[in-house]
Amino acid sequence: MKKDITKEYTNGEITIVWKPGICAHAAICTGLGNVFDPKKRPWINAEGATTAEIAAQIDKCPSGALSYYYNDAENKPVEVQGDTKVEVSPNGPLLIYGNITIKHKNGTEEEKHKVTALCRCGVSSNKPFCDGSHITAGFRDE
């Protein structure tokens, strides 16, 4: 099942973690084209930029499909320091910046860090998270 796939790519300093099943296909990652190029296989080249550039680009990922950890940090997730901010994306998901805990309907809890995209259109197959379905559904704020 695509939803359960996790792939890792490393440059020795940082490991990029990719979970394609939760990708919202916002294509923000392609802003660092030397690392993230969906036309290539593999599409992630961990050697294509500096560790700092890679981390900064991944921090912009709205779905959490891309994350990272520093190899010398015992695989601990990187948490954001500061206040939590919620942004309404035009014709798209709610973007939550910061550390949050999602309590699912079955009672399990999941911690999210950096940017989390929550579905507003109602057609995501990965609720409560956005999977990009709003694009093909033609979701509009108006």
Descriptive notes:
- By secondary structure, the protein is mainly β.
- It is 9% helix and 24% strand.
- It has a three-stranded antiparallel beta sheet, with helices on one face. The chain has a three-stranded antiparallel beta sheet with strand order 4-5-8, with no helix packed on it.
- A hairpin with a 5-residue loop joins strand 6 and strand 7.
- The longest helix has 8 residues, at 51-58.
- The radius of gyration is 15 Å and the shape is globular.
- The protein starts with 6 loop residues before the first strand and ends in a 5-residue tail after the last helix.
List keywords for this structure.
about 25% strand; three-stranded antiparallel sheet; about 10% helix; mainly beta; 2 domains; about 140 residues; Alpha-Beta Plaits
Mean of all residue-level pLDDT scores: 86
- The fraction of residues assigned to DSSP E strands is 15-25%
Shape: globular
CATH architecture of the largest domain: 2-Layer Sandwich
Name the strands of the widest sheet in spatial order: 1-2-3
CATH topology of the largest domain: Alpha-Beta Plaits
Number of strands: 8
Write down the secondary-structure element order. EEHEEEEEEH
- Structural category is mainly beta
For the record, the count of structural domains works out to 2
